[in-house]
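U., I forgot to send this yesterday:
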Amino acid sequence: MPARSSTIQQDLWNLPNILTMARIAVIPVICVLLAIDKPMAGVAAAALFGAAAATDWLDGYIARKRALVSLTGKFLDPLADKLLVMAVIVTMVAHDRLPVWFVTLLLAREMSVTGLRALAAAEGLILAADWGGKWKTAFQLVGLVCLIIQYCYTIDFGLFSLDVRFDRVGFLLLLLSLLYSLASGWGYFRSFLRSIEERAAPPSEVPSPEGVDPG
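Result:
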């Protein structure tokens, strides 16, 4: 659906963009709760993070349903997503919940893909998201929720109970997310190279119809 023509001030106060800005506004609260490093603070931070992540789907749904898609929203929505995830991850590194190498690889991938998309846009090319990016996002969000909860909790399944170390489960999911992230980044790079090669290739000669003398 094409973006509506309207002013930035009007766009900022439509419902989808209000939800997006609320997602940005809650980031400092989540980071403060993470810094407290106590079980109840972790549960509260996980709940806020989950609610903020849910608004990513909700604002897009409302924008499409009510024809409120705007250029402002197209800029704010991915920005809010990246700010939310990166703020939480950097805070976790500061409190020794994630290793530095993990964040370095993740940031390198995000910056590379963002730069590649900008270069593709300048060349009039569109790099569509692939299946790897969707799996990356799913593993990343669930993994971050588990890592925010952090502590070991006993979960009762009825017939048996299980002690779950949420920090270990979260880190495993984030590792899977990183693998999918790097794979999807390579997919973007291959798609870009393929598009450039197709544009540079000379048009194929169209054969003359059978039995017709072209001269």
